[in-house]
């Protein structure tokens, strides 16, 4: 059973104060040198100056940035699911992020494994794109779409629908080193090529 948060010591408003940092929060907007008071693990105050005596602990952030949790929009965080996966909790401490997005590490066949065994077991907040290829990047360094039969549009759409709180959308790669010759799709090396590739892949895969 989780323990209830310990109240701040008597006479102190905060558990921790972060002092003298450049606090940046685009949602407010906020960009200035000030202090941040934290209570029960949440931001409780942002003030020009908070006395160290008001908190049980203090961090001097002079010369540093203090921001809301940053988001890494392209992080391969499916270890054991692909050869390029890194355990997310080992990654975030080095790049100052609290949230990452998996860019198609998993397809419809293994998105459940990413969610159950990685996302659920990590402190890092994780979201994902489902790869149009049913096995995602499990075959890396081999490409994921050497043949069109790996592209499973309906299964991908179902995985997105079944995981609305975890999955953000679909991942499709169409660069020259990904598509096999037998597919007959022009690599997305130009804007026109990208438009043609998208429409051709969608029509071809849907007909299979």
First and last CA, distance: 50 Å
Number of strands: 9
What is the residue-averaged pLDDT? 84
What structural class do you assign from the helix and strand content?
alpha/beta
In N-to-C order, the SSE pattern is EEEEEEHEHEHEH
Task: Tell me what the structure shows.
With 208 residues, the protein is an alpha/beta fold. The protein has two domains: 14-66, Urease, subunit C, domain 1, CATH 2.30.40.10; 70-206, TIM Barrel (Alpha-Beta Barrel). Helices cover 21% and strands 30% of the residues. The strands form two sheets. Strands 1, 2, 3, 4 and 5 form a five-stranded mixed beta sheet that branches. Helix 2 links the parallel strand 7 and strand 8. The longest helix has 16 residues, at 191-206.
